[in-house]
Amino acid sequence: MKLGQATIKDIAKELNVSSSTVSRALKDYPGISDETKRKVKELADKLNYRPNAVALSLRKSKSFTIGVIIPEVVHFFFSTVISGIEEIAFANGYNVILCQTNERLDREKSSIETMLSNQIDGLLVSYSKETTDFEHFSKLMKLEFPIVFFDRLPDLPNSINVTVNDYDGAYQAVTHLISQGYKKIVHLAGPKNLTISKKRREGYIQALEDAGISVNENLIVECPSGTEKESFDVTIKLFEDVDNRPDAIFAHHDIVGAGAMMALKSIGLKIPEDVGVVGYSNWQFSSMIDPPLSTVSQPGFNIGEKATTMLLDMINNKNDYKKEPVHVVLDTELLVRKSSVRL
Amino acid sequence: MKLGQATIKDIAKELNVSSSTVSRALKDYPGISDETKRKVKELADKLNYRPNAVALSLRKSKSFTIGVIIPEVVHFFFSTVISGIEEIAFANGYNVILCQTNERLDREKSSIETMLSNQIDGLLVSYSKETTDFEHFSKLMKLEFPIVFFDRLPDLPNSINVTVNDYDGAYQAVTHLISQGYKKIVHLAGPKNLTISKKRREGYIQALEDAGISVNENLIVECPSGTEKESFDVTIKLFEDVDNRPDAIFAHHDIVGAGAMMALKSIGLKIPEDVGVVGYSNWQFSSMIDPPLSTVSQPGFNIGEKATTMLLDMINNKNDYKKEPVHVVLDTELLVRKSSVRL
Question: Where is the HTH lacI-type domain (chains A, B) (predicted)?
């Protein structure tokens, strides 16, 4: 057996397991033990087994299908991105398949393998909150497999990205709160490993500094899971000390903002009179709650359109994005509603 | 050339188009003219070209991937179903790919073709509002390709289905409104071709009849698109005649209910004092709006779990569902909140 010609069957035979187990172990599928995965991968390395991704990059025929990896389909922002993606894809004769990672790295990896085995022509990715190592993307990019990242900016030197100006969105939101006379502004922040969270935090800090308000680190509280319940609990705690209460909240997304509003109401505080609240992402419900929640609107549909246009150009070699990194940044818009207006 | 051995290339040559055009025409992909599609399909029929689906049904190896076809990912109900699907799929070593149809039949058809070319092992389907002919499903079922339908019940003799008891959910909601002293109850209904809409309408009618209230067809108004704006406009119209106003609304889902609430507020009517409102599906926002919206909760997660368990059994031949139709019906639960309580 020559190197480079090892098959899944060879590996299976050597390890005395089924071909299906080998195939699934190589793809990091769930349901296979870590021990088996390790053994299979070691032998595959030793035998120089050529993995799918390489085979794929050598493949000539197109499937006219693009894959989309998103953290959560229920997130309103992502659903608007998907609409933008589909608009461009369908208009160009491409179909779209989606996988959600539920913010988990293992699911992200196995979703990518699933999509690659399914012969997609390119990939649009918003990676999971757990992803800090981007090796599973960079190895594909080295093989010139078309990938465009959206919303969440990876720590990769040559990635093609479409994001929104999260820094500016946060800066505008906090500057607006200050203009309404709020002074002690809490930031209910997102997880630190996401660039979007960092940028929103930076925008919050810069807006305070530009207004001459000193930054109090105790007022920046992480809400990593982003559920209503989490921000409810965090808010109750922040407002415990009756003599020393904050007077505004800038939440890293609307669900977090809504949870905070429920907490404020539960302790008898009035919005916006006592406490002003601004969210982020303009979820569908945000204009329907009481009072309607001010928020930063991200151009989800445009992100999807732009990212897909770039991906199709890469797939069809219309543009040589490989030469230099391309980073498209789209503007956000502050939507002022009742929750933050008291003047 | 023998019959049954025609290839895509043969068809392409005969029609003087590219193989890619033939392939996409056969798959009903967008971006190919109807005229070309017709020509390609006619010749494929004539030459007895064996389509993908047949080839697939003859295929032995598994992909450990299941496909899910849903109308809209943003719909909170469907996102809970997806969570249930993924729970069972991942636990059994399967991955999940999703396609959304945006309630369009053409996208449904091309999504199915995409997924089949991608060698899924089985399909979970909630079909689009436009789908009235189920031929594209029945031809797969004849080939014994595993399909389980959820939420929306197809008009097919041997389908395997998991639905909720929509009739009973509606019956409970309307009975609750009557028990709160509401008498002139509007039904903002869903599109007529969906079984779920029919069942909810039947539940509404039966609840009125059982309470001795005669059914007024003018109070049943269709909101086919299901947007807030649509139900806002419909509600304004229904309440135009000040001397003859309804006193309650049973909406076929929560977005419709929320639109109606905004309309009622805009004309100065109080909820629940003047008008009671009950929605359907328990969207994420429903407990956050003012007043919180009473609604019928569907067990989305359980539907996803049950449908996936049945599909995996079919894929692995553990159960012979082919022998007789199987229809699992799960119970709904009425969640009473402030929007419908006035006693």
Answer: 6-60
Q: Are B70 and A98 in contact (CB under 8 A)?
A: no
C-alpha of A20 from chain center: 32
- Chain B residues touching A228 at Cβ < 8 A: 288
Using a CB-CB cut-off of 8 Å, the residues of chain B touching A82 are: 73, 100
Cα distances (Å, whole numbers) of residue A64 to A98, A145, A160, B66, B320:
14, 14, 20, 20, 35
CB distance A65–B93 less than 8 Å? no
SS3 content of chain B, % helix, strand, coil (to 5): 45, 15, 40
Identify the three-state secondary structure at position B334. strand
Query: What three-state secondary structure class fits B85?
Result: helix
Tell me the DSSP string of B158-212: T-EEEEE-HHHHHHHHHHHHHHTT--SEEEEE--TTSHHHHHHHHHHHHHHHHTT
3 state DSSP class of A326: strand
Q: How far apart are alpha carbons A70 and B73 in whole angstroms?
A: 12
Q: Which helix (H) or strand (E) holds A137?
A: helix A135-142
3-class SS of residue B96: strand
**Residue A92, both tokens:** 């160009």
**pLDDT tens digits along A119-169:** 789 999 999 989 999 999 998 888 889 999 999 989 898 899 999 999 999
Question: Domains plus CATH for chain A?
Answer: 8-56 (1.10.260.40), 62-163+300-329 (3.40.50.2300), 166-298+334-340 (3.40.50.2300)
Name the residue in chain B with its Cα closest to that of A78: B74
d(CA B69, CA B110): 11
Of B30, B117, B258, the CB nearest to A63: B117
Are B21 and B12 in contact by the 8 Å Cβ rule? The answer is yes
> How far does B217 lie from chain A, in Å, by closest CA?
30
CA dist., res. A337 & res. A293, Å (int): 6
B 272-291: CB under 8 A from A: 283-285, 288-290
The closest CB to that of B288, out of A76, A113, A258, belongs to: A258
Backbone conformation region of residue A130, classed left if phi is above 0, alpha if psi is from -120 to 50, else beta: alpha
Residues in chain A, total: 343
**DSSP notation for A191-229:** -TTSHHHHHHHHHHHHHHHHTTPPP-GGGEEE-SS--HH
Closest by CA to A326, choosing from A167, A71, A169, A147, is: A147
Closest CA to A254 of A297, A312, A211, A307: A297
Taking only the tens place, the pLDDT of each residue in A156-206 is 988 999 999 999 999 999 999 999 999 999 999 998 878 889 999 999 999
How wide is the angle at C-alpha A163 spanned by C-alphas A160 and A169, nearest 5°? 160
pLDDT per residue as tens, chain B (343 positions): 333 456 788 888 888 888 888 888 887 777 788 888 888 888 887 776 755 544 544 455 678 889 999 998 878 888 889 999 999 998 898 989 999 999 999 999 988 888 887 778 999 999 998 999 999 999 888 888 999 999 998 989 889 999 999 999 999 999 999 999 999 999 999 988 788 899 999 999 999 999 999 999 999 999 988 888 999 999 999 999 999 999 999 999 999 999 999 999 999 999 999 999 999 999 878 888 889 999 999 999 999 999 999 999 999 887 666 666 789 999 999 999 999 999 8
- What is the identity of the amino acid at A318? K
List residues bridging with B149 in a β-sheet: B125, B161
